Structure formats: C-alpha cells, structure tokens
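Hi,

Apologies if this is the wrong queue. I'm a grad student, and the batch job for NADH-quinone oxidoreductase from Flavobacterium aureirubrum produced an output file that my downstream script rejects. I'm not sure whether the problem is my script or the file. Here is the sequence I used:
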Amino acid sequence: MAIDTVIIQNKVTDVFGSSVSNFRTQRDIFCFDVDSQKAHDLVKFLKDDADLNFHFLTDLAGIHYPDNEQSKQYAVTYQLHNWIENTRVRVKTYLDGENPEIKSIIDLFLCSNWMEREAWDFYGIKFTGHPQLKRILNMDEMVSHPMRKEFPMEDTGRTDKDDRFFGRTPISN
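Support response: The file is valid. Your script probably expects a header line. Output copied below for reference.
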C-alpha cells in the first residue's frame, strides 16, 4: 500500500517549512521542489525517516533551462523509491546559472557516484564533496559540457559526414 502523498507533504513541510514548495503529482509520481541549500538534508530525511523510508535512489539527473531567470537556469532531480510501500517521489532543486553547484549525496547513496559524475560531465553541475568528480562518458580533454543548450546539436566542423546521405540536401544526378 502506497504512502499517502498528504503524509509525505506534511512531514517534509513540518521539518523544512518554506524550503519545500510546489507539491504536485506528475505521471503518478509525487513531486516537489526544495531550496538547493536544503536538498542534501531533505534527501537524508526522506531516507532516514522510519515512516517514509525512501531508501533507494532510482535516478539523479541534471537539467538546463537557459530561458529561466539566472537563479533557476539549472536543476537537479532526485527520484527516490520506498520499496516496502512501493511509493516514489521526485525532488527538484534549482541552481544558479553562474555557478551551478550543490552538495553531493554520495554519503547517502553510493550509487549517486556515477549519476553525479554524469550530471557534471554533461551539464557542468558541480557536486561539492564528491570524491572523484571527473568526466565519465566524454573525453577528459573536453572543455565544454555538451548537454547545455547553448551548444549546437551537431558539430559543424565534421568532415567525415555527407549531408546528402541524411536527406538534408538533394542528391543531384
């Protein structure tokens, strides 16, 4: 039997007050936002509270919103699962576009190691306290973070592809 979303909302609101907001359900997952300074404490609370028991980190992901105001240009989402009650929650926190930085949760969930490295590699989100924050999928020599929306989707300098074979220009006989 799933935990009632009202119980989750009341518990996190009692402890974190105005640091949590925007409670909603999206695609059958209870979601809410938290201030970035409180994100680590909130995830710890969700994991350690005996009634909530969100003991499994399903996913951690970075997001880039270039059209948002400066203080909300990046976000990190945490998806947590309580296997006993089969309940999931998604927690979202927004980060500053100038310096997207948040405290690592690797001390809470060891599996966040690769997830945080991926978010850093692709979005440039720095996870303070991470023991080995380095590229995981891209080359170490890269200076950019390719999932940021300011970068073009295709490398215009490539010489190894011919657009004619991708239907981009007509093939003349």
